[in-house]
Amino acid sequence: MIDRVIDISHAVILSEGWRRRMMAFAAGALGALAAPPVGAFPVLALSFPIAIWLLDGCTAAPGRYSAPVLRQAAGDGWWFGFGYFLAGLWWIGAAFLVETDEFAWAIPLGVIGLPAALAMFVALGFALARLLWSPGLGRIFAFAFGLGVAEWLRHWLFTGFPWNGFGHGLGNWLVTAQAASLIGAEGLAMVSLVVFALPATVVDAASRRPWRATLFGLSVLGVLVAFGVTRLLLAGGLAAQVGPEHVVDGVRLRLVQPNISQRDKHTQRDGHMVLTRLLTLSDRSTGPTATGMADSSHLVWPESPFPFVLSRDQRAMAELARQLPPKATLLTGAVRLEEGAARERRFFNTLHVITGRDGVLRSYDKQHLVPFGEYLPLEAVLSTLGLRRFVHAPGAFAVGSPRQLLEVAGLPPVLPLICYEAIFPLEILGRTPRPGLLLNITNDAWFGETFGPHQHFAQARLRAIEFGLPLVRAANTGISAVVDGYGRQVATIPLGAEGIADAPLPKPLTTTAYWSHGNELRYFFLLLSMVLAVGIGPISNRFRKRTQARTASKHQ
Known about the structure:
Layout: H1 2-13, H2 17-31, H3 44-56, H4 67-89, H5 100-103, H6 107-131, H7 138-156, H8 168-171, H9 174-177, H10 180-195, H11 212-234, E1 253-257, H12 262-267, H13 272-282, E2 298-300, H14 314-323, E3 329-339, E4 345-355, E5 359-365, H15 379-382, E6 414-418, H16 425-428, E7 437-442, H17 451-467, E8 471-475, E9 480-483, E10 489-493, E11 499-503, H18 513-555
Parallel strand pairs: 1-2, 2-3, 6-7, 7-8
Antiparallel strand pairs: 1-11, 3-4, 4-5, 8-9, 9-10
Helix pairs in contact: 1-3, 2-3, 2-4, 4-6, 6-7, 7-10, 7-18, 10-17, 10-18
């Protein structure tokens, strides 16, 4: 078997031209299968070794740090990243088909252009890895360092887009995801990069025990599994615990998922029909003794369901005042309008807290807006090319004030997250006091029943595990759910279904290591991988020379 692996590694290392590019592309695309909803993370043990062998083969010119070598490494990395992101983000094209007459022509920009741009981060990661390259085990940590830096930059640069990170394969499985409470998604990424790249070392000529490093990687996975199993068993098992001692007293949540397609929202002539549909769903009886939404303490509706400014619409607010139960609080997305001097108008993507008696009590305005969705970057230039925002509004959305916890009667302090704000853990850590729950409202109808909503939900659930906080999530077309601080689902409405879900609110965990030290941990992992990349190479070289010398002396 090892001979076969050696033949494959040599084929990768010695490949050139388009054959080499296609190998890199295919390896990246294969790695994308680790992400939800497929979740086949063992494929990384094939994808990452090919990446290692590609970097081994970057010797087109003399000199370890010569520009041609680094260019070749960056080129291989770009093709690897392009395959990874194209296979993982193809579903973005569904958004361009909502208004086909306006946006179909731009499908290549989203489906091909975005993966091509994100692949630049992987290209940089491969080049950084090559700078620290050394024979043997050290190059595995160089690979982890380079890709780890690339992932960190992808989180921040150009507003950031840390979608489908290299750790989300492990984060998609409840047992292995428990380690996120210690090391977060970034730590899972570093573990994945090291563990699943280790099989590349079986072809190292100086290795007397070629499978030793791979077995070490399997033992690391075994530790993650053992930790996850132990943590879940101590918490009662794989099923969420909903006994009185595990839930917040007096809270009865009702999630409402109207399942209105984005195309229907755009063609809706009477926007108040959406309100009627939401209220009808909210009041649906779930049993012979149930009395509809009167049983609920808190109703949760998805992001921006209304094609009008809710708080300015007297008819809609009067209808809410008439139908909302006296003791119920509504948490719903909506567009908010703020008018300033000189008729200046600013629109916000907002979460409202509403009661029938008092109307809008307080609001949270979204901070991390979606480029091209809620605003158009370089609008003066791109608008001349025929581009515009996907979201219909009289003007671009404005950025909300710095994030604060939201006070809602009957609930612990709420950390609101609108849409894809839930994929940015580094923007949440340390920005507020510790909340009691994560509230994520979203409209994933743009992407239909594709991989996108599954990936979005998985990343939001990972935040619950990282922070040890319950997650309450309402999506227009799914996936809506209540999740406890271990990532276990208390109630769920699947993708593409209209419905409601009644659930208690799980109590938050005391804290997690990641919540307390997450900012320090990510720098620790990058520094550790760099030190190991630099240090293990010379150590393994000296050990190899000693072994060779002893072998030679025995034969004399």
